[in-house]
Specification:
This protein is of the alpha/beta class. The protein folds into 2 domains: 268 residues, NAD(P)-binding Rossmann-like Domain (Rossmann fold); 60 residues, no CATH class. It has 12 helices and 9 strands. This is Fatty acyl-CoA reductase.
Length: 356
Amino acid sequence: MDDGRTMTMLPELASSSIAESYAGRSIFITGATGFMGKIMVEKLLRECGDIRCIYLLIRAKKGIDPAQRKEEYVKNIVFDQVREKYGDRLEKIRLIRGDILSEELGLSEDDRRELVDNVEMVFHCAANVRFDQHIRQAVDINLNGTIRVLSLAEKMRKLVSFVHVSTSYCQCNEAVLEEKHYPAPQNPEGISKMVGLLDDDILDLITPRLLNNLPNTYAYTKALTEDMVYQYRGKLPIAIARPSIVTAAMKEPLPGWGEGTNGPTGLLIGAGRGVIRSMHCNGEYLADFMPVDITMNAIIAIGTERMNDPRKDEVMYYNLASSAENPISWGEVLEMGRSVLNDNPFCFALWYPDGS
């Protein structure tokens, strides 16, 4: 969403001062195994070497035990620099077995006590970003998952910062997205209970009315979730980060690094292989992209800002977007893609790249 408004500029904080603010801190991250989460963990380990520990919530997946997933996780190419230069820092990663979809996050009593007694900063990155997700799954992950994390955070004795990662598209019906609270279209807790009671057929019937012209269940549940987080103001030191479309890394840890084929990455790969021939959009509309490394650098800085801000009863909002400072249209994106493909064609293509 482009509104012609200048992107929030965080205070000029030297990287050393940010590193100092994280020294000795214990951090809890949800969604750490995802695209954005990996970059956050890598950056903290590489640049904030005096951090005490990073707790990662990891669930079993496809029959793979959380401990095995952690071992595979630290072998990812993202952590190559950390392994080569600061291998001992990988030991700062602490496995917490759990699941955002489970009641009370599925934590053991020992792990719960460990988090409650030690965690000082929370970064809630876990979310379902699929636009076609059924409302039941979208609510359970994005809304209910956040409620579970908030409930745990409320018990943390040393908490100084709670950063919720939202999206710039949480209020698609607004011409201008301001850095402020927006009431949800319905009561978040009421929607959570209703979705838990109704069967899928009824939910399918009422979903269009619930969305109220929002484009998908992702935007809808993100709006609900922001309002839910806002209700914890005064109880928790909260900041909400709203990145736009997060793309492959610009620089760190590897230029061009990315995972999966979601968003514009999938579009450009499909076009480069000649599979995608057209894109249904207005070429004059602005495409708002944020490289994942820039996004996570900002979110790490937001954690420092929230920690040091005396206004503990206020929710701090940050729109992380590029279109006001560095606008580029979808038409320009396609033209750049064609130019790059001419110089760097794919090794494998089904059809000569072309289209509109």
